[in-house]
Amino acid sequence: MSKVFSIEEFATFDGPGIRMTVFLKGCPLDCVWCHNPEGKSPLTEYVRSPNGCLKCGACERAGIKTADGVKLTADSVNACPRNLVRKCGIDYSPRELTDKIMKNAAVLNLNGGGVTFSGGEPLFDTDFLCECIKLLKGKVHVAVQTSGFAPEKNFQRVLELADYFLYDLKIMNPSDHKKYCGADNALILNNYRTLAKSKVPFVTRIPLIPTVTDTVENLTAIASFVKENNVNYVETLPYNKLAGSKYALVLKEYHPGFDESRPVNTGEKLFASMGVTARKM
Amino acid sequence: MTEKVKNRLEFLLDGGYRKTRADGGVNLTSALNEFNPAMRSAQLFKAALDAEEPVLYGEDLFGFNRFNRLLPVDDTLNAPYIFEMGNITVDYETVLETGIEGLKKLAQQKYEGADEEAKRFYDALFVTFDACARIVEKYRTAAQKAGCEKLYNALSAVPLHGARDYYEALVTVHFLQYALRLNNVNHVTIGRFDQYMYPYYLASVKNGASREELLELTELFFISLNFDTDLYTGMQQGDNGQSMVLGGCDEEGNPSFNELSEMCLTASEELKIIDPKINLRVNKNTPLSVYERGTRLTKQGLGFPQYSNDDVVIDALVDWGYDLKDARNYTVAACWEFIVPRCGADIPNIGVMNFPLVVDRAVRKHLASSANFDEFLAYVGREIADECDSIIEDCNKFRTPYSVFTSGFILHCIEKGRDVSQGGAEYNNFGVHGAGISNAADALAAIKKLIFEKKELSCAQLIAALDADFNGYGELRRKLLECPKMGNNDDYVDELGTFLIDKFALFLNKRPNNRGGIYRAGTGSAMEYVLSAAKVGATADGRRAGQAYGSSFSPSLDAVIQGPLSAVQSFTKADLKKVCNGGPFTIEIHDTVFRNSEGEKKTAALIKTFIDLGGHQIQINAVNRDRLIDAQKHPEKYPNLIVRVWGWSGYFRELDTCYQDHIIRRTEFTF
């Protein structure tokens, strides 16, 4: 069993063709700019849509107090007079989840599309992910969108099964990576080398976070790293101020700790000068 | 777009020109009493035309702008059971070739030896044609005076004589839009513009006209169609019938998407104005590139093109008795109804099957006594049959008034000497909308699940909850809302949708109407998804009293939908050839999806998927600012509106207000 916090059927930026994207709960990293805060915890949560909220407090009275603040509960769902509280994180067995995906297989295959496992971090529960891919193998194209932060053994198992990877490279400096993402990047770089050596197709994706990842120093380091691995095409994802919009859902405030308003450096020229084509998504 | 086009567009959008109109609207009812019905119609038209004075805006290429705000009034047209003659695509081909003089000549030839009714028709027709000649002459003189040299030259030929090039042909089509509306026809469609105009387009190319010149002309013509649309209100502003149909196949079945089709898409994309409304005909052989071209237009957020599937529609029309060549030539009426151009005079929007109301009737009459769900479903089938009988009885009381001038542009009316209201046209069928199919199927699914399978709910409890509009029954309503909903690719409920469609088709299709035609079933809702729904109490799907149904062939507003892939599969399970009066599957996609060519291509693939699965018609909306603002005020109305930003998505209603504001600002609209 693993928890799914969202299944999106028309994911237009998550790999080739028309794709279904499954967002699995649970992530070992803690990136300050994370736009899916409800995907971090591997546990079921109850989330509250802020719009139309009467601020009557009924949901919080039905919740439980923790050191982190109030946690909403199943009782909060019924307590809300506007029906704004919902369960986030539905349990699926690999069979249940893949049956759901297979219902769309014909349509996905019609367009050279498939399914993308995202998150959270889909390798957080590697056993579950591998089970799912095995059930889908040969029936529908499977992509994995990953931070690469997973034990090498786990990564290797997924690499043997998946058809395609969308692989994030964020920060090259290990201590900066630890500062902004909550962990060192050695595993990520190692797994990337393994991926690049394999025959599995993949695309490298770089989130452009103002003053954090978009610095000349960092982008240069990324460019030379991908070149070392014989990669000459990357996709950049410029930071969008909407990143914080889901924090209200999980009753948190978004304080990313960098200047959100600063325009990002897309680094196209920098990449080009190093022989790498960077496409802004 | 050229400077000239830009200026013209600014002039249109400013709207100041509307202030100079006269009132008009004189009541002629008693003055017309002396005439026979055909002549009465002709005299009313003549009065309208003779009351017009030339209105030229600057260096006007097309003229024929409205002088009077209102038309002369004949109160007999407002009597009960009189149906406006409209929603037709006239025979542009013939008038472009021979001009009005050619039509007049044909009538003169037929006059000798014609019966009395035909002679009365021809006499009336001559009155209308003479009135045309007078207004054309007035405009010609005015054009000369105002220095509109091109228009002056064109009016020496068209619309009285045949067109020789693209520009003259445009003047003719524009004149017909103007004149037919002065004949009380509110929904005059443009039809297969890229087909009937193509020979004239090619003639201009041959004469040395450049692509740029022809595009400029096309754009100026499109703008000209918008000047007086504020006067052509149907149910609301914009409901004026100026549908244009592009692509598809020719009468022999060969692909007919051409240079001019492409040019029209470009013009619409650049102008971003509501008329003409673009429809794109596609079929199993249409390459993805055509869909991609269409998607670039969708991106503008205007809600077009609307796509229709030749493979489904043509077969359906042939099955309903249309000649294969006519069927291959099909066009779209004011909204989505499939009609044939030139020789058709169907009334494709004469009635409506209100599905949720019919299911509710069955609940109240038969649910308590039904031993199992199948028995109840059989009663629903019987209620549909009864409703079809009652729709037909009611609609057969309708007649259309004489519409002599319009008849002049419908093939065979002149040859037969019969007004369109008297059977002059080839096709005289009636179309009936099917509103609220999803709500009705969802209601049946909830009844099946909660009453017959889980036995959690009794018939009496359900009826009590419906009567109370769920006040005090919040928990029950939640259970109803959690039952399977159409749009999630769930056979449990989709099969019930198919049942409703099959029964509607079985009891309505091909039954005779009062004009020698037949009835045709459809999946459209027109305004009924709001109007009919407003009068219907709470329903077993969990819908509250008075709340709107899903628009046309779409999920209900209360349904939580997994996504567009599930939805396209749900809505292509039924045999849609049976309900080809029309009515689109409608899907809303946030325009951020179109941010780069990747999203455009995928949207195109999604549309192609719907068509390849046997869908009949699809409208895809890039959600625009107004809708987002409304969604912010009424989040409950837009439960499934997805906003795509950066590499992730969220439900619009779940975003914090400041982020919603941000998105709204970013999607700011120009019109």
Report on the structure:
- The complex is a heterodimer of chains A (about 280) and B (about 675).
- Chain A is of the alpha/beta class and about 280 residues long.
- Chain A has helices at about 60, 75-80, 95-100, 105-110, 125-135, 150-160, 175-180, 185-195, 215-230, 270-275; strands at about 1-10, 20-25, 45-50, 65, 70, 85-90, 90, 115-120, 140-145, 165-170, 200-210, 235-240, 275-280.
- Chain A has two domains: about 1-40 and about 90-280, TIM Barrel, CATH 3.20.20; about 45-85, no CATH class.
- Chain A is built from ten helices and 13 strands.
- In chain A, α6 packs parallel to α8 (about 185-195).
- The longest helix of chain A is centred in the C-terminal third of the chain and has 13 residues, at about 215-230.
- Chain A is globular.
- Chain B is about 45% helix and about 10% strand.
- In chain B, the strands form five sheets. Chain B has a five-stranded mixed beta sheet.
- The radius of gyration of chain B is 26 Å and the shape is globular.
- The model of chain B is unreliable at about 645-650 and about 665-670 (pLDDT under 50).
- Chains A and B meet through β1 and α4 of A and α23, α24, β13, β14 and α26 of B.
Give the helices and strands, then pairings.
The complex is a heterodimer of chains A (281) and B (671).
Chain A: E1 2-11, E2 19-24, E3 45-48, H1 58-61, E4 64-66, E5 69-71, H2 74-79, E6 85-88, E7 90-92, H3 94-102, H4 105-110, E8 114-119, H5 126-136, E9 141-146, H6 152-161, E10 164-168, H7 174-181, H8 186-197, E11 202-208, H9 216-228, E12 233-238, H10 268-273, E13 277-280
Parallel strand pairs in A: 2-8, 8-9, 9-10, 10-11, 11-12, 12-13
Antiparallel strand pairs in A: 1-2, 1-7, 3-6, 4-5
Chain B: H1 3-14, E1 22-24, H2 37-50, E2 68-70, H3 92-111, H4 116-145, H5 149-155, H6 166-182, H7 193-196, H8 198-206, H9 211-224, E3 243-247, H10 259-271, E4 277-282, H11 288-298, E5 306-309, H12 310-319, H13 324-328, E6 331-332, E7 338-339, E8 347-354, H14 355-367, H15 373-395, H16 404-407, H17 413-416, E9 430-435, H18 437-453, H19 459-467, H20 474-482, H21 491-508, E10 519-521, H22 528-534, H23 564-570, E11 585-590, H24 597-612, E12 617-623, H25 625-633, E13 642-645, E14 648-651, H26 657-666
